[in-house]
Amino acid sequence: MRIKFVSAFAAAVIVFLTSITILGQKGAVCKIGTTTFDCPAGFLKLPDVDATTRLFQSKDKDNPLKLFVTVSADDFVDSVLRQTHERSYSIPAGERFEWKTVTNPLTMDVETKYKHRVIASLGFWNKHLLELKSFIFSVKGKNIVIGYSHDWGEQPQANARLFEKGEGIGDTAVGCNAVVTLLNSITKEFKEKRRYCSMSTFTSQ
């Protein structure tokens, strides 16, 4: 009986310690220089764009959204990210995306005390319209850029008209929510780790 009691007690201890370990586990941490942030849930990490930029791919095959984070003291330009995104497509030799800066990009409301601005680019090739949207936050003397790309689908005529117009099209909740959640993992501005953009309005930047 004593042996059985010890075995049962030991098993209970193992279960208890295992539970504590699981509850104490944290998500993976990503890093750019001295800046750390929670690697975004629901995304796979892709090869780094460069020393200052990390790139992630959504695990949702029905929503092939890419997410990126850049930390640099320099002014942000998205030309390198444009080229990186182009390589995701099977573009024949001699062809490439056409790009233009979006006039008045549209975003959902982003709640934060940190000053920010948004720039966006539209890329068009064949049937694809790709929007690259970058939120530039000023945080303690650093430019923290968090953004995402969204393919608006294969609609040749409609996409060609939208690209020619060059104005803001809309926003994606998945991308915007990922931006504010990532920002909060850096700034610790709010207690809740998971943050959401307001879906009630679109803001012209």
Provide structural commentary:
The chain is 27% helix and 36% strand. It has 205 residues and is an alpha+beta fold. The chain contains four helices and eleven strands. It has helices at 2-24, 79-86, 156-165, 173-187; strands spanning 29-32, 35-38, 43-45, 53-58, 66-72, 98-101, 106-109, 116-125, 128-139, 142-154, 198-204. The strands form three sheets. A seven-stranded antiparallel beta sheet has the order 3-4-5-10-9-8-6, sandwiched between helices.
In short:
The protein has 205 residues and is of the alpha+beta class. The chain has helices spanning 2-24, 79-86, 156-165, 173-187, and strands at residues 29-32, 35-38, 43-45, 53-58, 66-72, 98-101, 106-109, 116-125, 128-139, 142-154, 198-204. It is built from 4 helices and 11 strands; from the N terminus they run H-E-E-E-E-E-H-E-E-E-E-E-H-H-E.
Number of helices: 4
Shape by Cα distribution: globular
In this structure, how is the largest beta sheet organized?
Answer: 7 strands, antiparallel
Low-confidence stretches: 1-25
Name the structural class. Answer: alpha+beta
Strand content: 35-45%
- How far apart are the first and last residues' alpha carbons, in Å? 74 Å
H and E string: HEEEEEHEEEEEHHE
Strand order of the largest sheet: 3-4-5-10-9-8-6
Rg over CA atoms, rounded to whole Å, is 21 Å
Helix content: 25-40%
Average pLDDT taken over every residue: 84
